[in-house]
């Protein structure tokens, strides 16, 4: 069976406005200057555990900011996160094509499940996989590993592709020999998806690519990092 791993933020849902609003409030709460809107938007996707220190926060500030962010954002995310137009129909078409679908997101898994259920996408997915900070599962590579293990998929022998909007998706999947189809409607900076085997401009192009044979035959496993 062909398996498609799907990123969440910037791929299935347009969560940037809500995430940056709550992140800005969290940064203010810990006394760190809030970056401009463009810089905040670039923080959507990668784990805050690595992204916030790169912004200049100390370990103590990072921990406090994440706690403040989780307290406010997690309480509303499942009800205020918009789905990109066309995504439910896309997932339905992919299921009709006998593709196995799973979410692989850097978000905490429990929250990802709530969001997916809250926006009405749960019925299309075999698994919603995310981060587990208690268990040490942080970052896209660790999430992808967990998802393929739970699905019983061996990328060296079975066709599997990642779909995402940031280089973290490309890099995390590549660690397991999985190629990525990038989506142009997400939050990537210009040139960020250069490592993807294919970048699609819109939902319909993604549906056509994944439902056809060409994308699978032209995307062999990538070298593991």
UniProtKB/TrEMBL annotation:
Organism name: Pseudonocardia xinjiangensis
Name of the protein described by the UniProt record: HAD hydrolase-like protein
Transmembrane segments: none
């Amino acid at each position: 069976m062909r398996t498609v791993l799907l990123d969440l933020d910037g791929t299935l849902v347009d969560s940037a406005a809500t995430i940056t609003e709550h992140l800005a409030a969290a940064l203010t709460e810990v006394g760190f200057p809030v970056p401009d809107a463009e810089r905040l938007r670039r923080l959507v996707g990668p784990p805050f555990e690595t992204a916030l220190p790169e912004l200049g926060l100390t370990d103590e500030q990072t921990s406090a900011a994440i706690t403040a962010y989780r307290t406010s954002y997690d309480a509303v995310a499942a009800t205020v996160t918009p789905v990109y137009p066309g995504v439910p129909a896309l997932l339905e078409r992919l299921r009709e094509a006998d593709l196995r679908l799973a979410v692989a997101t850097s978000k905490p898994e429990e929250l990802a499940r709530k969001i997916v259920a809250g926006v009405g996408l749960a019925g299309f997915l075999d698994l919603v996989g995310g981060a587990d900070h208690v268990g040490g599962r942080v970052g896209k590579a660790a999430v992808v590993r967990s998802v393929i293990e739970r699905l019983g998929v061996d990328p060296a022998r079975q066709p599997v592709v990642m779909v995402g909007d940031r280089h973290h998706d490309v890099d995390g999947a590549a660690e397991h020999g999985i190629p990525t189809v990038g989506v142009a409607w997400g939050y990537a900076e210009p040139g960020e998806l250069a490592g993807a085997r294919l970048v699609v401009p819109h939902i319909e192009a993604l549906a056509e690519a994944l439902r056809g044979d060409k994308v699978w035959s032209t995307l062999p496993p990538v070298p593991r990092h």
